[in-house]
Amino acid sequence: MAAVNNAAVNTAAVDPNSLQASLKDALLAALLAGALGLFFLGIRTDIAPGGLAVRTRWGLLLTAMAIVFAGRLLLNLFVFKTKRPVTRAISGSMAGTGSALPTLGWWMGRGLFGFALVLPFFFMTFFPGQQRQYIDLAILIMTYIMLGWGLNIVVGLAGLLDLGYVAFYAVGAYSFALLATNFEFIGFWTALPLAGLLAAFWGMILGFPVLRLRGDYLAIVTLAFGEIIRVVLLNWYDFTGGPNGISGIPKPTFFGLEFSRGEGGFADFFGIEFNSIHRFVYLYYIIFILAIITNIVTMRLRRLPIGRAWEALREDEIACRSLGINTTNTKLTAFAIGAMFGGFAGSFFATRQGFISPESFTFLESAIILAIVVLGGLGSQIGVVIASIVMIGGIELLRNIGFLSQIFGPGFDPTQYRMLIFGLAMVLIMVWKPRGLVSTREPSAVLKEKKKIGADMVAQGEGH
Amino acid sequence: MEYFLQQLINGLTLGSIYGLIAIGYTMVYGIIGMINFAHGDIFMIGSFIALAVFLILTTVLGFTFLPVVLLIVLIIGMLFTSAWGWTVERLAYRPLRGSFRLAPLITAIGMSIVLQNFVQVTQGARVKPLPPQIQGGVTLMEGSTEAGRIVVQLSYMQMIIIVTTIVLMTLFTLLITRTSLGRAQRACEQDRKMASLLGVNVDRTISLTFVMGAALASVAGLMFLLLYGVIDFYIGFLAGVKAFTAAVLGGIGSLPGAMLGGLLIGMIEVMWSAYFSVEYKDVAAFSILAIVLIFLPSGLLGKPEVEKV
Question: Where are the alpha helices (DSSP H) in A153-252?
Answer without folding.
Answer: 166-182, 188-207, 215-235, 237-240
